[in-house]
Amino acid sequence: QVQLVESGGGSVQAGGSLKLSCAASGYISSCGVAWYRQAPGKERELVSRILSNGAITYADSVKGRFTISRDNAKNTLYLQMNSLKTEDTAVYYCVACAAWGQGTQVTVSS
């Protein structure tokens, strides 16, 4: 099974930006990929995904602010997060080929 390692999380003030990366240990070009997040005391939620047919979806709460992308040559998935809000604070997980990363913390302060 492919292994995934996220990076790029951290602390930022509201209105700032972060770019998350998810490096896969193997080929993920044929798989759908996604980013999920889980805030303290809340259920894990789907943030964005790229389906196997190339279609992209976003949660309503991040539309217009977040951009998902992938570099198949590098087996890497990205999530560009702009105009961050305090409610974006969560642990972010990448998913590819049914594998989950370990998560990376994103903290947005006011």
Summarize this, please?
This protein has 110 residues and is mainly β.
Strand proportion: over 45%
Q: What's the count of strands?
A: 11
Low-confidence stretches: none
**How much is the average pLDDT?**
96
* H/E element order: EEEEEEEEEEE
Overall geometric form? globular
Number of helices: 0
Helical content stands at under 10%
The rounded Rg comes to 13 Å
Chain oligomer state? single chain
If you had to describe this structure to a student in words, what would you say it looks like?
- With 110 residues, the chain is an all-beta fold.
- Helix content is 0%, strand content 52%.
- The chain contains no helices and 11 strands.
- Strands 2, 4, 5, 6, 9, 10 and 11 form a 7-stranded mixed sheet that branches. A 4-stranded antiparallel sheet has the order 1-3-8-7, with no helix packed on it.
- A hairpin with a 4-residue loop joins strand 7 (66-71) and strand 8.
- The model has no long low-confidence stretch (mean pLDDT 96).
SSE order and pairing:
Elements (H helix, E strand, L loop, with lengths): L3 E4 L2 E4 L4 E7 L8 E6 L6 E6 L5 E3 L7 E6 L4 E6 L8 E7 L2 E2 L3 E6 L1
Parallel strand pairs: 2-11
Antiparallel strand pairs: 1-3, 3-8, 4-5, 4-9, 5-6, 7-8, 9-10, 9-11
Keywords:
single chain; 110 residues; four-stranded antiparallel sheet; 52% strand
